[in-house]
Write a structure and sequence with these properties.
CATH superfamily of the largest domain: D-Amino Acid Oxidase, subunit A, domain 2
Order of helices and strands: EHEEHEEHEHEEHEEEEHEHEHEEEHEEEH
CATH architecture of the largest domain: 2-Layer Sandwich
Number of strands: 20
Number of domains: 2
Strand content: 25-35%
CATH class of the largest domain: Alpha Beta
Length: 383
């Protein structure tokens, strides 16, 4: 008996939408999303940065998919008129003690295949008028975009391909059969339905481990034939800079190398992020963040910035922007990143794993937004 759908995608974040837009022209596709609309979690609570792929271990999924995704994302934004800007990024050593760490970051970036160059003496002189910088390099293809309009464009193309969307809906039971799945879903009015699908793509983000467990997989590595699906969530908050003179003096993203750390990569692996840095918005304003605070498994994810870290962010911002005053920073948004658990402190890469008619996407944290179209291309090739 024919299934109701060829493919069911769980999760309408940027990755789920990108996959739907890519595959649905020849697959009967349904997206199940627990929230009332697309992209209401990590996909819309982030820095809106188009990353260049300079910080990740060479040949890792994050590295390769970010490099490819960067190109695909700029092409998509140009073709479908999604607001964006290739502003570039300065990676800087704030003081002389960070120069060796800068060299480590430069080595990784120059091996990545991304377009990077050292700053000239004249450029350093100009930057020193506004930021603290001993030395640095420039990432040419780092940019910013309107993430919500990008999400809208993906949903539009998926709908044009007759993808079905079920918002306010989530799976409550998944039964794996010989050649398809029975999926019991709960709707927004608490009614329940049962559907069948030939293939499940788990793009549920923070909820991906729960969907895997519901499908019958062990998520903690108990099965040697199944990767670890368990994820660890960290919370990152942002602060806006509300000083127009400072906002207009900086045209690029500014990412200091982590202070007093042995290596850039070691810091990223252990901390959960790149440290508090300076990003630019399409409206010309500056934003500090995110920091990284690991959550316990029973902690709730809220999106409220209570302002209690104002001093911490002020001092972090002041180290980058010497002219910054305390009253120049104000609480902004909050985001969450899910990172895969690994054995023996191994690198937590993107997980893209296929087992017959099930595809699992795990740990799609930054640079997931940039990589989304490349991830969708990879999934399409797996089908």
């Amino acid at each position: 008996m024919e299934s109701d759908f060829d493919v069911v995608i769980v999760g309408a974040g940027v990755v789920g939408l990108a996959i739907a837009a890519s595959i649905s022209h020849n697959q009967r596709t349904l997206i199940i999303e627990k929230n009332s609309n697309f992209g209401l979690e990590s996909s819309s609570h982030n820095s809106e940065v188009i990353h260049a792929g300079i910080y990740y271990p060479i040949e890792s999924n994050k590295h390769l998919l970010c490099i490819e995704g960067n190109k695909l994302l700029y092409e998509w934004c140009n073709r479908y008129q999604v607001r964006h800007k290739r502003v570039g990024k300065v990676v800087n050593a704030i003081n002389q003690g960070d120069l060796q760490n800068l060299e480590d970051a430069w080595h990784l970036a120059s091996e990545s295949g991304a377009r990077v160059r050292r700053l000239t003496l004249n450029e350093l002189k100009e930057y020193r008028k506004n930021i603290a910088i001993e030395d640095g390099f420039f990432s040419i293809d780092t940019g910013i975009l309107d993430s919500v309009n990008f999400l809208k464009s993906l949903e539009y193309f998926a709908k044009q391909n007759e993808t079905f969307f079920a918002y306010n809906t989530f799976p409550i039971n998944i039964q794996k059969n010989n050649d398809n799945f029975n999926i019991q879903i709960k709707n927004h009015d608490d009614s329940e339905d049962q559907i069948t699908a030939d293939l499940i793509i788990n793009a549920a983000g923070h909820g991906a481990p729960q969907i895997a467990a519901m499908t019958g997989y062990k998520i903690n590595g108990e099965d040697a034939n199944v990767p670890i699906f368990k994820q660890h969530v960290n919370r990152g908050i942002y602060y806006d800079i509300v000083n127009n003179k400072i906002n207009h003096s900086i045209n690029n993203l500014i990412y200091p190398v982590p202070i007093n750390q042995e290596t850039m990569q070691g810091y990223i692996n252990s901390s959960g992020g790149l440290g508090i840095h300076l990003t630019k918005t399409l409206d010309g304003n500056l934003k500090l963040g995110p920091d990284a605070e690991w959550l316990n498994s029973d902690d709730e994810m809220d999106y409220i910035n209570d302002g209690k870290k104002a001093k911490e962010f002020y001092f972090a911002g002041k180290s980058i922007l010497p002219k910054l005053n305390f009253e120049d920073v104000t609480p902004a948004h909050v985001g969450y990143r899910s990172r895969l658990h690994t054995k023996e402190n191994q690198y937590a890469d993107f997980l893209i794993w296929k087992d017959k008619q099930y595809i699992h996407l795990g740990g799609i944290e930054s640079p997931g937004l940039t990589s989304s179209l490349a991830i969708a291309k990879k999934i399409k090739n797996l089908l």
